[in-house]
Amino acid sequence: MSDFRGMRLAAMRAKIAAIESGGRTDVGVLPFGDLGMDGRLPGGGLPLGRWHEITGAGLEAETSAAPAAFAALAAAPLARKGEAVWVMRRDDLWAPGLAGLGFPSERLIQVCARDEAETLSVMEDALATVGVTAVFGEVEAVGLTAGRRLQLACEKRGATGFVIKRRPFGGTAKTEAAGSVSATRWRIASAPSEPPAGEFGLGAPRFRVALERCRGGRSGEWILEADRAYSWEAGDVAHPLRLVADLGDRELAPAQPAVRRAA
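-> structure tokens emitted (263 positions)
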């Protein structure tokens, strides 16, 4: 009798652990390749089999250029292993630009949806499809119910979702319910590029990246660069984003008392 109770307790503990970890525990993480950055993410990298929020500021809320580029670069290693589906409401995604950044555009499937409800529905179907490893969706707001449905779809096949917060036709911003079931929330902005040492002109694209919220991790802020962008070698690197500077957790020097000079 005691062995039977022990087995039931062990099974119950395993079930609770699976629920707390988001259902699937075998999909792993996608490291960025920097210990300082990966150390702030649970498991040492971007959690896979979950969905992530990526947003911008100012005009990026409508154009979403920098958030879309960051999302594509972050998911490029996943797209090399399967198909990637991009669901949008405004047909302005430029695949050659993504290819120049190192994203395997030959694996990209573009879908244009009529409204946000259809966008979320297509995302769910794509996440639960065999062979799909990454799904992007341009959505202004994700409610709690829609967020849970996305997570269940991620868990079905272990695919990873990227919700790019975008208001493609302008207008008044929607009021979003407090709270979210996304694994992480990122805020992306463009950053000034720098040419290689001793050279002139523009350097590789750079992004100011802020990890605003992370389940089981810590927030932080960095400058990332698209490594070997617009080069035939872009697909040969382990991860197309590399850390340039860490902007978070920098302590200011203590204020020094003013020294009075004798008149």
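The mean pLDDT is 83.
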